[in-house]
Amino acid sequence: MPLNLPENIPAINLLKKEHIFVMDSLRASTQDIRPLRVVALNLMPLKITTETDLIRLLSNSSLQVELVFMKIREHRHKNTPIEHMQAFYKDFDEIRNDCFDGMIVTGAPVEQIRFDEVTYWNELTEIFEWARTHVTSTLYICWAAQAALYHFYGIPKYDLPAKMFGIFKHETSDPYQSIFRGFDDEFYVPHSRHTEIRRDDILKVPELKLLSESEEAGVYMVMARGGRDFFITGHSEYAPNTLHDEYMRDLNRKMPISMPVNYYRDDNPDNPPVVRWRSHANLLFTNWLNYYVYQETPYRIDDIVKLGDLGQ
Predict the structure, then answer these.
(1) pTM of the predicted model, to two decimals?
(2) Is 235 annotated as catalytic?
C-alpha cells in the first residue's frame, strides 16, 4: 500500500522518479481504509531531504501509512523556506490531543551542545513525555536517541576524538527480535556523529535492552518497554549521496574532516559510493511498522490516550 502524504509536498515528485508509489491526502481520503498514523518530528536542518529519506523507507511497507510532520514551535529553520514549514508542518500544540500509531524523531545538529542548553530542550522533553501516552512505538534516531536516553534514563553522551563518519559493520545480540526479521548476521549502517553513548552505561539500566553494536561504531540499537521505544545511533535512512554531501560541505568550510570510511568505491572520493545499507534500512522500517506499530496497536488509536502507558 502507498503512503498518504500532504498534497503537493516536494517528496512526491522526487520519489516518483524512483518509481515509489505515494498518495496525496486528497486521493487517500476516497479510500475506505484506516491508515497507520505516524508523526515525524523532523529536527534535521535540510527538512526536504530528510522528509524524502523517511518517505522512501516507509513506502516499502504493505501497510498504508498517513505521515504527519511536526516541528518545534518558534524554532528558526534557516535551510527550509518558511512557506514549506507553514504548508506541511504542524506545531506540537496542534496535535497534542491526537494519538498516533508510530512516531519518528530525527537527529539534530546540536550534539556537541549540552542537552539542557539546547534552545528547544523543554519543548522536546515535553514531546518525549507526550509520546509515552499518545504513541504506540517511537523510533529515536541519532542525536534524538541520545537525548531520549538521557531524559528517560540518565544515560550520558561522550565526545569522540574524531567524527564517527562512514559505513560500519554491525551485529545483533538478539537476532530473534522481530525488528531484525530478515536481517543477515552482519549488516551495515551509516554513522555521522561527534558523540557516543557507551554499552556499560546501557547495561546498568535494567529497563534497557542492547540489541545491536558495531566493533568500530559502538552501540547502535537499544530497546525499551518491549519495543515501544527504539534508540538508534546511526542513520539507516540516509540516501546514497548524503555522506558525500556532508564530506564536501565540511571540506568547503575547511573543517577537520576525514573521508567517510567504507564508503567510496576503492576509497576514492572521485568514485561513487558503494551502497551496502539500503536493504537492511528497508527491513528496519518495515519490521518496525509491522511488528511494533501495526501488530501492537490492539485498540482504536482514539482509545490509546485513555489507556495511558500500554508498556506498564
Answers:
(1) 0.87
(2) yes
